[in-house]
Design a protein that fits this description.
Shape: globular
Number of domains: 1
Number of strands: 11
Number of helices: 13
Strand content: 15-25%
Pfam families: Asparaginase_II (PF06089)
Order of helices and strands: HEEEEHHHHHHEEHHHHEEEHHEE
Structural class: alpha+beta
Organism: Terrabacter aeriphilus
CATH topology: Beta-lactamase
CATH architecture: 3-Layer(aba) Sandwich
Protein name: Asparaginase
Radius of gyration: 19 Å
CATH class: Alpha Beta
InterPro entries: Asparaginase_II
Helix content: 25-40%
Largest sheet: 8 strands, antiparallel
Distance between the termini: 40 Å
Length: 330
């Protein structure tokens, strides 16, 4: 990946610089730390229904971009659906069924694990990671959380006769298609392009544009967008994992689609076309789902059971809960 992908400006996005305090870290009744963040709810037409901070500022959605990346693949002939398409959108936990599904995508395209270029890692899920390491196995691309996306990218390349060795390059036809899908769904020109943690390009878009994109996915009734949404709704455990809050959220709210991302991003689409996106300014994941839960509460979405899963972020002392991360000002 060439160096020109690095942003040329060190200016700070308003989504970060103008972010108000949105969460307190409370230990035994004392506020130990605070997190700043930005949140937005968009209407189906893209207008702003709720804004905390400045949601016009660009952010890297990180893995919240994966459903948009998968949309580009489906638009260009990726013919998987159901659980395999959900895995294409996934930051999976590296559980056995995730790894088997990634191998199935590769095999269906006549490929193998050696074709993957995502960064080798251990499984994300704690139990799976411990078992993997205990088995004496090194970090591998197939168990890294982005292997479903990369396997699907390769399968799309095979479908179109595109070069496999350079599929991560931003000038590759696959990545040009991804950038087009990002522009189409977010309604914005990327403010920056960089290398994501897995090695693929990632595009900075307004936080409000990310919300709009997810609202469009969730409201779609036909075409590739509807196919992506249907796969995510039907197989949320392939999008995340058996113990992940994003899995519980999708299962618990009819018609909802969602995707969590690194550096404390979360994006949600509702079947009525509204979109939600949150970004914690310091990138701390411990405040991400708490902030999202507060926004969902404010707009009246989600059961108490689902919201409790998102809000469960205990502060520990000697291994025992002595406080929690709580949303404020939302």
């Amino acid at each position: 990946m060439s160096d020109h992908l690095a942003p040329t400006s060190s200016s700070v996005s308003p989504a970060l610089s103008a972010a108000p305090v949105v969460a307190h870290v409370v230990r035994a009744g004392f506020v130990e730390s605070v997190h700043h963040g930005t949140a937005v709810v968009t209407a189906p037409d893209g207008s702003i229904e709720l804004e905390i901070g400045d949601a016009s500022g660009p952010v890297f959605p990180r893995s919240s971009s994966k459903p948009l990346q998968a949309l580009a693949m489906v638009r260009h002939g990726l013919d998987t659906d159901g659980r395999l398409l959900a895995l294409a959108c996934a930051s999976h936990s590296g559980e056995d069924f995730h790894v088997e599904a990634a191998r199935e995508i590769l095999a269906g395209a006549g490929l193998s694990e050696t074709d993957l270029q995502n960064t080798p890692d251990y499984p994300y899920d704690e139990a799976a990671r411990i078992a993997w390491i205990a088995g004496g196995r090194p970090k591998q691309s197939i168990v890294q959380n982005c292997s479903g996306k990369h396997a699907s990218m390769l399968a799309t390349c095979v479908r179109n006769g595109w070069d496999l060795a350079t599929y991560r390059d931003p000038s590759h036809p696959l990545q040009v298609a991804v950038a087009d899908a990002v522009r189409d769904l977010t309604g914005a020109e990327p403010a920056a392009v960089a290398v994501d943690g897995c090695g693929a390009p990632i595009h900075a878009v307004p936080l409000s544009g990310l919300a709009l994109a997810f609202g469009r996915l969730a409201a779609a009734t036909e075409g590739p967008e509807a196919k992506i949404a249907a796969a995510v709704r039907a197989f949320p455990e392939y999008l995340g994992g058996t113990t992940r809050d994003v899995t519980a959220l999708i299962r618990g709210v009819d018609g909802l689609v969602a995707k969590d991302g690194a550096e404390a991003v979360y994006a949600v689409g509702l079947p009525d076309g509204r979109g939600i996106a949150v970004k914690v300014a310091d990138g701390s994941s411990r405040a991400r789902s708490v902030l999202l839960a507060a926004v969902l509460r404010r707009i009246g979405v989600g059961t108490e059971e689902v919201l409790a899963v998102l809000e469960h972020e205990p502060v520990l002392g000697h291994g025992q809960p002595v406080g929690s991360v709580v949303a404020v000002g939302v």
